[in-house]
Amino acid sequence: MKFFVDTADVADIRSLAEAGLVDGVTTNPSLIAKSGRKMAEVIAEICAITPGPVSAEVTATEYEQMLAEGRHLRQIATNVAVKVPLTEAGLRTCRTLTGEGTLVNVTLCFSAAQALLAAKAGATFISPFVGRLDDIATDGMQLIADIVKIYRNYPHIKTEVLVASIRHPIHLVEAAKLGAGVATLPPAVIRQLLKHPLTDRGLDAFLADWRKTGQSIL
């Protein structure tokens, strides 16, 4: 499974990339706004940190403007994936951009039927939001299971399932068990994956025993 980081915080991305935990990055207008910086500058800096896909989202809602924004965003770097919403205009934009060789991430997916339409439009990635479905008492992971199963029925579909709105490690583990190809996680959730009380306890014991020897490795 590929790990994408869901943030526009360059310091967090750089730190996780140095640990080998970044295969790509996803951003959205809310994350860019939170950064307090100009979008093009942030995306360019992120693209320089990781060679993997970096999603940059359009903000237009009509096809012509959406397409113009997508073409502008892809000029920032060769690894930009233009992010479009799962609307008719978004899918039309996806189809055009994909035909031009641009990576496209279709976002805000909440049903298997929507995911099938995105694949038909040639999406590079489909981003189903599991956490937001859980918020309305719907099983987000069942959506992942359904999309993965449908895509596997048709070998010609190359769209990758990019699990989004991951709130905790269980979402990630379940998505991996289902065979989703990509997960995008906030930095805090990635760091949660590291934590286990037995790891902490074992390390404390090892270090305590080592200190008793009075030795130093260096």
UniProtKB/TrEMBL annotation:
Keyword Cytoplasm part of the UniProt annotation: yes
Keyword Zinc: no
GO biological process terms held by the UniProt record: carbohydrate metabolic process; ketone catabolic process; pentose-phosphate shunt
Family matches, as Pfam families: TAL_FSA
Gene Ontology terms for molecular function: aldehyde-lyase activity; transaldolase activity
GO-annotated cellular components: cytoplasm
Protein family according to the UniProt entry: Belongs to the transaldolase family. Type 3B subfamily.
HAMAP family: Transaldolase_3b
Protein name, per record: Probable transaldolase
Phylogenetic placement of the source organism: Bacteria, Pseudomonadati, Pseudomonadota, Alphaproteobacteria, Acetobacterales
Gene: fsa
